[in-house]
Design brief:
single chain; 351 residues; alpha/beta; 4-stranded parallel β-sheet; globular
Length: 351
Amino acid sequence: MRLSPTIFIVPTGISCEIGGFAGDALPAAKLLGAASGCLITHPNVMNAGSLSEIDENINYVEGYSLDRFAKCEICLRKVSQQKIGIIFDAGIEHDILVRHLQVADACKASLGINVDSYVITDSSIGVQCNYEGQKMSSGIIQNPKTLIEAGKKLINGGSTAIAIVADFSNQESNHYVDLYRRGKGVDLISGGEAVISHLISKYLQVPCAHSPALKPIDIEYEIDPRAAAEEIGHTFLPSVLIGLSKAPDLVDIKDYPLLGDINPHEVESIIVPSGALGGETVLAGMERGLNILAVKNISTINVNNRFFNYERLIEVENYLEAAGIILALRRGIDIKSIKRPFETIRNSRIQ
């Protein structure tokens, strides 16, 4: 059975009911990966703090690079193993840094991941996060140059993928964090995280992902299960290293894709929450005439198809239904033949 390359997006920082927490969209990704045989998704879907999983059907691609892929600027090349370098923010406290180095050793010793080297930035990255109007998370970094220079050192040293650990210790527990832990709010730091990973992707063009360095916080007895993966370890770095360990290389599409590369021109469908249709990847898919599967996945925004009136948008109730449609498309089954009432050909005569 042929592969059906499919993009799966759950935007970060908008509190999606599925995928707005700690890797709680990972089961959906595994299902969609099995249905398509080739799923392209981003770290927000896959990262679950201390938990994650390698799935041969799933390709782990940072959000900025995923936008480039959807716009047919790059293709993806499978690798057996990435050589991971880690950037640590100079602002991280010593004991917290040691915890992260222990994670790197554990991933090398227990999982066989090639975590090759690390650097510490020359100065603090200076992350600032905002929670705008209780709708979405956003952020800025005050010293992007120190981050880029640290990444260049790793690449010059032979790293082929980069994990970034920035200091978020000033994001102390507050009302919004408490809401998130209870499953009722937006992930406060996710907007700042996205800025960091987008910057590395844009300027260094290697697989990358970010993990925040946070101080331990008091136990919360009413944790939502979707956020629980972030409560069980000292750092969130394990899921990043697992994801990056086999993340595909990013290859400029002008460099003649090789046999076996994932070519964006082969993508047939994009799966996205029905209220989050305004992102670059989805807009690029609309321009190219791809199937857009809009899943009912409640979030704090509602940019739906009434703004676009896109003809090839398919509304689905959940990711189970989305997987069925992807599988039908993969097998060449007309989805109208499965729906009832059945549409007779007698009403489709062209005059």
